Amino acid sequence: MKEKIEILMREALAAVEACESNADLGKVKVKYLGKSGELTALLRGMKDVPADQRPVIGGYVNEARDAITAAAESKEKTLKAKETEEKMLKESIDVTYQPTDVKLGSLHPCTLVKNEIVDIFTSLGFSVAQGPEVELDFFNFQALNIPKDHPARDMQDTFYLGDEMLLRTHTSPVQVRTMLDKKPPIRIVVPGKVYRPDDDATHSPMFQQIEGLVVDKHITLCDLKGILSLFAKELFDKNTKIRFRPSYFPFTEPSVEVDVTCSQCHGKGCRLCKGTGWIEVLGAGVVNPKVLENCGIDSNEYSGFAFGMGIERITMIKYGIPDMRILFENDARFLRSFR
Ligand code: DAH
């Protein structure tokens, strides 16, 4: 019996030693130590051993079980460490690997230009305001001194959504919303989408504008010119000049169209500026006192200036893009060139 136990123990220890994985080890443990394992079978055979020898033989069986268990535990640790190391080696990342065909996205040129314009004005102390694209006639027109049936409505073709509701035709209604909401001093820029039923090489039914509004004491046309001159130098280049031409908007008085010297020919005259050396970039003016009063601001105490520009138009001028439609086609080759 003693020999049998020793042979079985040696066999079991050799089997443990030969295991190459924890799965193998599991099987070996079941085979020798499990409920219907070989050592248990030996224990069952104890009934055939003479009673006086049972304690001794029982002691051998226990020793054998302890030895096999200890060997299995130590083997398990070794195997676990080995498996962890192999797993880590397999999962390691080669940081020097150079992937060949990663398609990176990029910001749309209009987004780049919008961000740039917003950055220029926020660095001058303006904050960013927003308003709804589905707007009330009151904010889009009436409060801006464009009553119903006024001929000035023809300046902006409109998608109406009912008698009093429309898709905003410009970002100017956010001027009204801001002035009704806050007391001067006010210094805001308003980037956002606007809508008009036009569609050709230089117009799209949806386009983006940036509005500017300053209301404070003693604001004049000179402040407007100073700010816009600085803006043009930042956006185009430091030699850019601006000029004001008289114009008409119901919400400003006086009103101006603002031109910048052509960024391609620097004023000499080229195709982009149609030979004039100047390019029209935005509309602006001194806020009409009627608009201030419509918004509950005392026009004897406060004055302001405002301006509005089309982001697509500025983008086309800045990058020499001749047809606006390419900005909406999402041709990846075109978009990639702005990365
Ligand atoms: N809202 C005008 C438009 O869309 C642009 C504009 C002109 C905005 C003069 C202004 C402004 O704030 O003062 O045509």
Description:
There is one protein chain. The chain is of the alpha+beta class and 339 residues long. It contains twelve helices and nine strands. It has helices at residues 2-18, 22-33, 38-44, 54-91, 109-123, 137-140, 173-181, 221-235, 289-294, 311-319, 326-329, 332-336, and strands spanning 127-128, 134-136, 165-167, 186-195, 206-216, 242-249, 252-261, 278-287, 303-310. The strands form two sheets. It has a seven-stranded mixed beta sheet, sandwiched between helices. The N and C termini lie far apart (83 Å). The model has no long low-confidence stretch (mean pLDDT 92). It binds 3,4-dihydroxyphenylalanine (DAH). 3,4-dihydroxyphenylalanine binds next to strand 8 and strand 9.
Produce the secondary structure layout.
Layout: H1 2-18, H2 22-33, H3 38-44, H4 54-91, H5 109-123, E1 127-128, E2 134-136, H6 137-140, E3 165-167, H7 173-181, E4 186-195, E5 206-216, H8 221-235, E6 242-249, E7 252-261, E8 278-287, H9 289-294, E9 303-310, H10 311-319, H11 326-329, H12 332-336
Parallel strand pairs: 1-4
Antiparallel strand pairs: 2-3, 4-5, 5-9, 6-7, 7-8, 8-9
3,4-dihydroxyphenylalanine (DAH) binds next to strand 8 and strand 9.
Entry keywords:
339 residues, seven-stranded mixed β-sheet, two-stranded antiparallel ribbon, 12 helices
Query: What order do the strands of the largest sheet run in, or round the barrel if closed?
Result: 1-4-5-9-8-7-6
State the share of residues found in helices, binned by percent: 40-55%
Question: What would the average pLDDT be, to the nearest integer?
Answer: 92
Low-confidence parts: none
* SSE sequence, one letter per element: HHHHHEEHEHEEHEEEHEHHH
Structural class: alpha+beta
How many separate helices? Answer: 12
Question: What is the end-to-end distance?
Answer: 83 Å
Cα Rg: 41 Å
Kindly state the number of beta strands. Answer: 9
Bound molecules: 3,4-dihydroxyphenylalanine
The coarse overall form would be elongated
The proportion of strand residues reads 15-25%
Largest sheet: 7 strands, mixed
